[in-house]
Specification:
Helix content: 55-70%
Structural class: mainly alpha
Protein name: intramembrane prenyl-peptidase Rce1
Radius of gyration: 22 Å
Organism: Citrus clementina (Clementine)
Membrane topology: Multi-pass membrane protein
EC number: 3.4.26.1
Largest sheet: none
Pfam families: Rce1-like
């Protein structure tokens, strides 16, 4: 049943606040060049570090701005953080269950990666005369090198740390409580909130446009695909946040999806990949509500203090 929450702020005020936070998140990225008149960064690393700082500032501004609007009943640290879903309780449930649920959508991708890895190992063992201690050492050193390469890659920090953390803080932790307090129905919020999330990604249009040799058609197709993907993921992330009342749930799902990319639906001469994808999606839909039951992530679901609405969603 679609539940409607009690309104503490007007719907217009809640929507306007979300629009302002969206504009702030995107606009502040260009502040160093357009407002502060700083010279262009000397390298990609400096460019991304500058953007990391801007995204962090925008997130802090959104947290303060939304706190001034939300009817927070107690200014105790735990209570204020709880409004944004930043909680230490039920952490392992908020990390493990949504990660498992999200991974089901990538069953085809993981089967394909496993098959490719198995073929690579088989080839290496055949070349080295079978499984040996030296072969195992090579594999372990290769994995270690890949981990260090990711940890030192500035793009990895953007994709797996800064972007997921700041986006979930602004577009889930700040906006969803505001929309709930505006009296919007929960299902409406799940479909509405990703609109702001997807619009924030329109700032990539000019970058993609120049990267595609100024082809408007190609740039529009790429941006359109990205917007569609961000809308679908935004629905899922908003669902997780409201159902669990825990910011860790959509955050971990966001990091995992950024790492995996688009799900693999089929692969040539590998029918098992398609079978795994279909089976994973069936399992995902079957477990979507049972594995996100609010009582799994909260000690109580009545007298809800965190404004996420899980106390009224059956």
């Amino acid at each position: 049943m679609e539940q409607e929450t009690e309104a503490y702020v007007s719907k217009a005020a809640a929507l306007m606040a979300c629009v302002l936070m969206t504009l702030s998140y995107v606009g502040i990225l260009y502040a160093p060049t357009l407002i502060l008149r700083l010279p262009p960064p000397a390298s990609l690393k400096h460019y991304l570090i500058r953007r990391f700082i801007c995204a962090a500032i925008s997130s802090i501004i959104s947290l303060i701005f939304s706190a001034l609007i939300l009817p927070i009943r107690s200014w105790e640290t735990s209570n204020v953080l709880g409004v944004y879903g930043i909680r230490a309780d039920h952490m392992w449930q908020a990390a493990v269950f949504p990660l498992f649920l999200t991974s089901l959508m990538y069953a085809g991708s993981m089967v394909l990666k496993s098959l490719l890895l198995l073929n690579s190992w088989t080839t290496d063992m055949n070349n080295s005369g079978g499984l040996s201690l030296g072969c195992i050492k090579i594999v372990l050193w290769s994995l270690r090198a890949q981990m260090f390469a990711v940890a030192s890659n500035i793009l990895a920090w953007r994709n797996f740390v800064v972007a997921p953390l700041t986006e979930e803080l602004v577009f889930r932790a700040c906006m969803i409580p505001l929309l709930l307090c505006g009296g919007f129905k929960i299902n409406t919020i799940i479909f509405l909130c990703p609109v702001f999330f997807s619009l924030a990604h329109l700032n990539h249009l000019m970058e993609i446009y120049s990267a595609q040799n100024f082809s408007l058609l190609k740039a529009s197709m790429i941006v359109g695909l990205q917007l569609g993907y961000t809308v679908v993921f935004g629905w899922y992330a908003s669902f997780l946040f409201i159902r669990t009342g825990h910011l860790a749930a959509p955050l971990i799902a966001h990091i995992f999806c950024n790492y995996m990319g688009l799900p693999v639906v089929f692969a040539r001469n590998r029918g098992l990949v398609s079978v795994a994808f279909v089976a994973g999606m069936v399992a995902f839909l079957w477990l979507l509500f049972p594995i996100t039951r609010p009582d799994l992530y909260n000690d109580r679901t009545n007298n809800c203090r965190c404004l996420h609405g899980y106390c009224s969603w059956n």
